[in-house]
Amino acid sequence: MSFWSFSLISRFLTITALILLLFPTALAQQPAATATIRVIAQDEMEKAVAGVQVQLKRAGTVVTTAVTDEKGELLLTNLPPGAYEIVVSQEAFETLTQSGIAITAGTPVEVKFTLVPKIKVKEEIKIEGSAATPIEQGASPAASLQGVEAKQLPNKATQVSDALPMIPGVVRTYQGELKISGSSEHRSAFIVNAADVTDPATGQFGMTVPVDIVQRIDVFKTPFLAQYGRFTAGVVSVETRRGGDKWNFELNDPFPEFRYLNGRLRGLRSATPRLVFNGPLMANRLYLSEGIEYAIKKIPIKTLAYPDKETITRSINSFTQLDYIISPRHTLTGTLHLAPQRNTYANLSFFDQRPVTPNLQKHDYTGTVIDRLAFGAHLLENTVAIKYYDANIWGQGSDEMILTPVGNRGNYFSQQERRASRLEWLSVFSFKPIINYGTHHIKLGSILGRTTNRGEFLARPINILNLEGQPLQRIEFTEGRPFNRSDLELVFFGQDHWLVTQRLAFDIGLRFERQGITETLRFAPRFGLAWAPFATQKTVVRGGIGIFYDRVPLNVYSFGHYPEQVVTSYGPNGAIIDGPRRWMNFIAPSPATQFAFVAGKQQPGNFAPHSVTWNTEVEQALSSKLRLRLNYLHSNSNGTIIITPRQTAGRDLLALSGEGKSRYHQVELTARYVPKEGYQFFFSYVNSRARGDVNEFNGYLGNFPFPVVRPNQYANLPANLPHRFLTWGVMEWPKKVRFSYITEYRNGFPFAALDARQQYVGEPYSDQTRFPNFFSLDTRLSKDFQVNPKYAVRITFRVFNLTNHFNPQEVHRNIADPRYGIFIGNQQRRFMLDFDLIF
Predict the structure, then answer these.
(1) 3-class DSSP state for residue 756?
(2) What is the pTM of this model?
(3) How many helices and strands in the chain, by DSSP H and E?
(4) φ, ψ dihedrals at 147, nearest 5°
(5) Each residue of 543-580: pLDDT tens digit?
(6) 240, 319 in Cβ contact below 8 A?
(7) Are the beta carbons of 587 and 643 closer than 8 angstroms?
(8) Rg (Cα) of the chain, in Å, rounded?
């Protein structure tokens, strides 16, 4: 038996022993303890409604289905204590849901529903939180956004990534990348219905699912439950919605938006028709939900002139979900996400005009099958997911790329072709609640995944010129080699959400990870608590600490097959002053294995990026309509992968190493105010600081690498924003008129000053080199017109940047540029009229 086989078996036995020590009550034999729920259904006149179908759910699985009697009542008996959800439906009334119904042994619970007659066109705003009490939410509740909320806000979100900046701690940079807790996408996890959907090669989110089929978006920055892993910054978790008992259709934005310049029609600007439909294929048995968008978007760059001012994106984004109810205790869900996309003139800007931009064509396909089976009060969930992702990137021609202080010329230097895949099996067993010194909700799980990445990277020469056109440096490339890397991941986890009393709960968890290609074993203990010091539970104190690990994307291990740089430097008279020097691609050993919770060999590529994160929080309900939350988060990350030029033993190296580190802290204050039905207001203020090593690997190994590798520095990270204020609201007025707004005020992003050789000047991304403060007020006004009992038309009017505040898109950042420090480009006040058909 090999060393690693023996080590894996021994550590698995150790994990099992630790789980048994953590959760001794899981194996204790307990006497059956049951509870009772009485369901009462009545109409708005308080008259009993018979024949109402009642579904009792637990952990998303239907436990039982029955109907109310002639008195409008139904008695559900012999139920294990715990948290339940009840869904009531009847043909003449709207379907209603009540979640987080907590029951205890020997104490009957009465749940009353007032049924509302069906209206053909209706949207409901659901309030954050699915649990009945704050203690039930545990130590680390997510920041949440309902799918309906995302659709009603002015920013016209068509996919999940568009809606994420509406959550505190999540921002989108002016280059278009999402940042969570100040970190890049590859340091966060993105899961849809529990399945990992990130790009296996880069860790990027890619095209996310259509927002039309989303039930709920959760963002966790400190999830102390061990079921969450593969991140050091945050987790985005998306739940999609299944089809309903009646067919519903929506056709959104069926008409294109035209381009007008100087009062004249200049063709099509964009077309984003979206079709949504869902309903039963077999009554009470098989349900379908489908959301699909076809998009042509021509995004203008304000600093350029027509007709060369637009980047063009064509895409299809389709998500299909089938839910089959085999029995009240057994369900099967299948999903398929198809997202092909072509982006022409990607990353177009004043400094990278059309000839120097790359093109991108990619296909992103994800399929999942989820099986949920209840054994008594236990629940077994098995998810099998397969993802395929391919990307082709090429320039507009074959000319050499030229970098100058005032802008770049020639054609983009690199050409990529890669194919990546992931096959994953996730199995989770949730025990029935165990009553022993409180109530234990214990969950054990495992993940087995195989990822692959194959392709080739080619590159053409780069010329760096000064303002007078004289050569300063030339970068040539050796021939790259095709790469084909694969990885096998194994995860075990156990966790206990322990409700000690109705006022105190603990989250205790342990996670074991092995990413085969890194040859490391990782242990991630976590602990959190939620405590209500007063009987009213209006005040809740939360806190916790945990260890988290990034998954290392496979493109890191393809680096050895990339072309190597041959660099020649020139003096003022054009004479060679250095070189040509060949910089070898080198993957270094990582000191991360010195971390007490990581075991592995001291060898190249033994990366284990990790963070130790803790937080404390106070939540206060000032009334049933207003809730405040104050949170402090602190995260220390080490072992992050950076790329740096270095000289070792007389060799010039471009080295990938696990020597990076970052620090992040955040104070967050949020408030949610719901004065009455149909009205909701959200306010947040975030004070944060993000510092770390700036040479993260994704700048050179991502989809659009930049060829110059600068010496690394520890400084502000590019998404460091000390202050950000965000508020949004939704108001439903009479006669089916809805108004919503988004207001954001924050610091401008920092930028790095460069010299003529494209090297950093001073400290990059310092507080002295920032964009002006950003302010934007966007509004949305819509009204529904009922054409007939079946069809309705919705007219929506949007205004973006209502105050016309100057929010520049770019800055002259090269000190050799005569216009250094001048900000250019502004997305001025803009109006938009939309048309939707609902039937």
Answers:
(1) coil
(2) 0.83
(3) 4, 50
(4) -60, -40
(5) 999 999 999 999 999 999 999 999 999 998 889 999 89
(6) yes
(7) no
(8) 28
